[in-house]
Design a protein that fits this description.
CATH topology of the largest domain: Glutaredoxin
Structural class: alpha+beta
Radius of gyration: 22 Å
CATH class of the largest domain: Alpha Beta
Number of helices: 5
Distance between the termini: 84 Å
Order of helices and strands: HEEEEEHEHEHEEH
Strand content: 15-25%
Number of strands: 9
Helix content: 40-55%
CATH architecture of the largest domain: 3-Layer(aba) Sandwich
Oligomer: single chain
Number of domains: 2
Shape: globular
């Protein structure tokens, strides 16, 4: 008689655990889907409301021991802050475009790359291969700078005005058209 009472209790416990695990799996799938859309979705942007101040940061500069990359160092200039990593597939398509843009508009618009959650050696090889000549800061795990900007998927780019307010935020890869529009806009300011 005791065994019969325990058996249904065990089954009920198993059923509860199975339902709980199923619910957790569904939540994880939803998170993965949202992240995948952010990574592959290219071009969603914001903010729609008034510009918000960009979070200040200072990071070790990739490939230049003892040097720092900081937003404050670009005071008074419009800045493009691009979060990327060498392992990010969309970043591999976007980075050469951004590197060419920077070379063509150097002096008109500042660009800061933020290599998030990456290995330094891989990041250095990547930026060299992609022709990056703008400063790149290293944001190692747990990627506190990326987190402070709300970056959960790569690439993401923040367009800042000369007062370092976020005037545009692009989730996913940039296009040449978006960069040209930004260069034109900042040239009129």
């Amino acid at each position: 008689m005791i065994e019969r009472l325990q058996l249904p209790a065990r089954l009920a416990g198993r059923r509860s655990r199975a339902l709980l695990l199923g619910g957790v799996a569904l939540v994880l799938l939803a998170v993965i889907a949202v992240l995948a859309l952010g990574i592959a979705g290219g071009g969603s942007s914001g903010p729609a409301g008034p510009p918000k101040a960009a979070k200040p940061f200072s990071l070790a500069q990739l490939g230049r021991p003892g040097h720092q990359v900081s937003l404050a160092g670009m005071a008074g200039h419009p800045v493009i802050v691009n979060f990327f990593a060498s392992w990010c597939e969309p970043c591999q398509r976007e980075t050469p475009l951004l590197a060419r843009f920077y070379q063509a508009h150097h002096g008109q618009v500042a660009v800061i790359g933020v290599d998030a959650n990456d290995q330094r050696a891989a990041a250095q090889k990547f930026v060299r291969k992609m022709g990056v000549s703008y400063p790149v800061g290293v944001d190692p795990f747990p990627a506190s700078t990326a987190t402070s900007y709300g970056v959960l998927a790569l690439p993401q780019t923040f367009f800042l005005n000369a007062r370092h307010q976020i005037v545009r935020h692009v989730v996913g890869g940039l296009t040449a058209r978006e960069l040209s529009a930004w260069a034109t806009r900042t040239g009129r300011q």
